[in-house]
Amino acid sequence: MRTALPYLYLSLLLCLLNNSPLDAQEVFNDSVTLIKRNYINATVGKDKGKEVLLKRLSAIPPEEEVSDQNVIELQQLYPVSSKEIKSLMNTLRTDGSWEDINYSDTKRSGWEPKIHAERILKLTKYYYQNKPKLQPSAISHLTNTIHQAMNFWFSKELVCKNWWYNQIGIPRTLGPAFLLFEEEMSEQEKQNATKVMMNSAFGMTGQNKVWLAGNVLIRALLQNDWKLTKEAREVITSEITFGQKEGIKADWSFHQHGSQQQFGNYGLSFICNMSFYSEIFANTSLAFSQEQQSILTSLLLEGYQWIVWRGYWDVNGLNRQLFRNADIDKGFSLLFAAYSLIKNSEPEVADKIEKMILRNSSCSQAPNSFIGNKHFRESDYTIHRTPAWMASVRMASERVIGTELVNEDNLKGYYMADGALYTYIHGDEYHHIFPFWDWRRIPGITTYESNAPIPNPNNTDSRNHSSCVGGATYENTGITAMQLKRNKLEANKIWVFTDEYILCMGSNIHADSTATIMTSIDQRFSKGKVWTDNNKRVFHNNTGYIVLQADTCIVLTENKEGQWKDFMGMYKPEILKSNLFSIYLKHHKDPASYIYLILPATTKQKVIDFDSNSIHIIRNDKEAQAVVIKDLCYVSVYHPTKLSIEGHPPTVISEAGVYIIHMKENKFVTRNPFSLSSNK
Fold first, then answer.
1. pTM of the prediction?
2. Could you give all domains of the chain from N- to C-terminal order, each with its CATH number?
3. Is 374 helix (H, G, I), strand (E, B) or coil?
4. DSSP 22
5. 597 strand-pairing partners
6. Do 525 and 433 touch, CB atoms closer than 8 A?
7. Across the 680 residues of the chain, what is the mean pLDDT of every consecutive 10-residue run?
8. Strands (E), 213-330
């Protein structure tokens, strides 16, 4: 009878593995175990395919002051060295705390006690990965350190003034640590761990909803609760959809905090989290459906891959998170997420993702293969990509919130959606520039010249009171338009994108104020000599600027100083110095107008030789702006009007919007009314 028992157990196990309904609870536990194992493997980085990305990431020194959750989770991927672990063990005080952490910190962003939680995760990762290789005495010392650090947290029950840390950030950091250390935890510690995780519950919308459900999932895994695991998965995947107020939009942008583009903040967390869950649920009954997987890969390929250039994140996509190294760190986060999505994707889609990863992870300056023009209609955001350069424009309207100030993040970003225009060749053109900026001269914007403090969007009317904002694309060209109505200042602004240059036009610029109005063309680090032809044609750092019409053009190189804390409250005070190049226009007429070109990835000689007669300005007034370039006429109409072009019959345009007309064929090739309810 005894000899038969092993065979009986083996038979039962085989039945369970074959999903036999012999004992439902055992099947459930087995599924929980598999998901838990997948979760742990993903946490400790057991993935040879990501080693190349991890090697490149590890070459970049990690940030010491971090608040961005995406960066926190990115830095958790860094290999944990024995030297660092030894230091953490040796500096731990007898009460389980570390002397260098301010546990009384009251900041809402960059809350210092979170460092304690992050160190616990590092210690548990090291324990889990190195346990088989360590001597018993070393294991004992390490586990004692972890117990002490955990129990300090349990006993103090530290609370941040920002709800996000309490309900999302801390459980999201400590949860994986509990999973890694579960076998060593006492029953009391497990109860305390569960209490920490109970701070998260199902609720809210968009990425906040996903974060909370992900923390509930960890609690379910700790409790071996299949029912709750399944419920958490359902809540997570419920956000993989369209048509909701927040989350994925029909144009593959992402909204959070109302109708606000959030590619680099909540949106990045969303795609990173979802790719993670796609990976840990793989090969289980809770695996994502083909439709859900398709939505995520489309979000990556139709949305995110547009805004990253040679691994650098577009400034217009950073949103309020203007952290040090944010453009690099967010780029890396996306690449890791992309790699996770490959695993459950169809071969054709996987190939596109692999090309995207290669394009943004290589140090090569080879011509860019992903080109085109895209206007994110629901986010008032345009991207233009050529083989040699990329540009972006960020706007706001009555439909779309431009920017936000939350938890002392983005203290000076009031004008960042007033038509901000950035151009990139190498990708690092605006890397670390923010401490030195004149925040009233953000590239591309039109506003008052003033020394007054930058307005707080939470205390003033921060909306653009116009619905006349939009864009249109034809082949690899496009037009983007914005009617600016803000702070008693009005202006019509368009950008026409070609393979060679960006044409920028402004009209009907006026204000109910005596203050001087200015339009910023560019503001970046000074690199090399500045060549200028009476400020009409300017060349600097492989970029040309040609002013075709303006009252006054000013070109400057300045010694500047500033600090990160001036606009991101979490940073410690530190004065920095640098040299900046800037070019901007001053408007004296009422109403004023301007016309200028930006030529990225060019030479001084090409700027000198450029034939401005190839650009035929048709209208630049209150009602419309129109220009003919080669065979195409790019038009923005703010009021019904008649367009008269030499050699062609008059064209009546009855609805405000942006249009592209093929002159040889005498037809509209793109119609895009400003009203979202209108047919495209």
1. 0.89
2. 372-611 (2.70.98.10)
3. strand
4. T
5. 503, 546
6. yes
7. 36 36 45 91 82 88 85 87 96 97 93 96 96 94 98 96 95 97 97 97 92 97 95 96 90 94 94 94 90 96 97 96 94 94 90 94 85 97 98 97 93 96 97 97 97 87 91 98 96 98 98 93 97 97 97 96 95 96 96 98 98 97 97 96 90 95 94 70
8. 247-248, 254-255, 308-309, 312-313
